[in-house]
């Protein structure tokens, strides 16, 4: 653990709201059909990446992948790497697994649980090569800012699952949240800004341009990427 940090079992402030009702019949069918291969259970406890994927590789963690199109594309485009997605929204998990199955993607696994619980109880320490957080809920209202997932404690928890030189890649289309991310991350002594202190990172080709972003670009909306590397103190 980092700086004698206590393991996190439960938190009182959540950074997400599980929206929507039950899955449709089709979503449930996809979920049930694909879970045995792609699904990982919180209750199973600490995993070993080599056992899960049957090989040694660079493992990338993504939290909050939505409906999964971007993560599926990344896994398909980088077969030499392995990916673990964490999402609380069951329809999104069902859709990602369906996309993976249809594309023959085998280097991907998924948790349908709270990321904080998974990080604390399931992911190996100091083993992942990358951690991705794309377009998290910005919680626009000031009174809700405390719900933003990017906080000092979360940055430390991410560092705990990253190996040295592993990266933490964030992206947001809400400038005040980008500025908040920057403020939090620049204060962390265990990270180094890959773009230079106080600088945003140009969108890497490895992060697919979503339809949402394409629409936003046409309307003149910005997107801010931040990449921080875990360093040895």
UniProtKB/TrEMBL annotation:
InterPro entries per the UniProt record, alphabetical: SAM-dependent_MTases_sf, tRNA_(Gua-N-7)_MeTrfase_Trmb, tRNA_methyltr_TrmB_bact
Entry binding sites for S-adenosyl-L-methionine: 62, 87, 114, 137
SUPFAM superfamilies linked: S-adenosyl-L-methionine-dependent methyltransferases
CDD domains referenced in this protein's UniProt entry, alphabetically: AdoMet_MTases
Principal EC category: transferase
GO cellular component: tRNA methyltransferase complex
Protein residues bound to substrate: 141, 173, 210-213
Biological pathway: tRNA modification; N(7)-methylguanine-tRNA biosynthesis
Molecular-function annotations in GO: tRNA (guanine(46)-N7)-methyltransferase activity
Annotated stretches, region: Interaction with RNA: 143-148
Enzyme Commission number(s): 2.1.1.33
Keywords attached to this entry: Methyltransferase, S-adenosyl-L-methionine, Transferase, tRNA processing
Membrane-spanning segments: none
Record's catalysed reaction(s): guanosine(46) in tRNA + S-adenosyl-L-methionine = N(7)-methylguanosine(46) in tRNA + S-adenosyl-L-homocysteine
A Pfam match: Methyltransf_4
Domain of life: Bacteria
HAMAP family: tRNA_methyltr_TrmB
Function (record text): Catalyzes the formation of N(7)-methylguanine at position 46 (m7G46) in tRNA.
Family: Belongs to the class I-like SAM-binding methyltransferase superfamily. TrmB family.
Name used for this protein in its record: tRNA (guanine-N(7)-)-methyltransferase
């Amino acid at each position: 653990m980092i700086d004698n940090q206590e393991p996190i079992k439960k938190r009182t402030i959540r950074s997400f709201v599980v929206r929507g009702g039950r899955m449709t019949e089709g979503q449930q069918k996809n979920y049930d059909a694909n879970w045995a291969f792609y699904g990982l259970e919180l209750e199973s406890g600490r995993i070993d990446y080599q056992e899960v994927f049957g090989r040694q590789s660079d493992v990338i963690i993504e939290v909050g992948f939505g409906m999964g199109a971007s993560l599926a594309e990344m896994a398909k485009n980088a077969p030499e790497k392995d990916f673990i997605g964490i999402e609380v929204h069951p329809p999104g998990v069902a859709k990602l697994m369906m996309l993976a199955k249809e594309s023959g993607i085998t280097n991907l696994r998924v948790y349908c649980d709270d990321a904080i619980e998974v990080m604390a109880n399931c992911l190996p320490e100091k083993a992942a090569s990358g951690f991705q957080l794309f377009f998290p809920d910005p919680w626009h209202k000031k009174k809700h800012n405390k719900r933003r997932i990017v906080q000092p404690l979360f940055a430390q928890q991410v560092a705990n699952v990253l190996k040295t030189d592993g990266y933490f890649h964030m992206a947001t289309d809400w400038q005040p949240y980008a500025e908040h991310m920057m403020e939090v991350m620049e204060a962390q002594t265990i990270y180094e800004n890959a773009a230079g202190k106080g600088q945003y990172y140009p969108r890497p080709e490895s992060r697919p341009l979503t339809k949402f972003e394409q629409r936003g670009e046409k309307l003149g909306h910005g997107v801010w990427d931040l990449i921080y590397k875990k360093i040895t103190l």
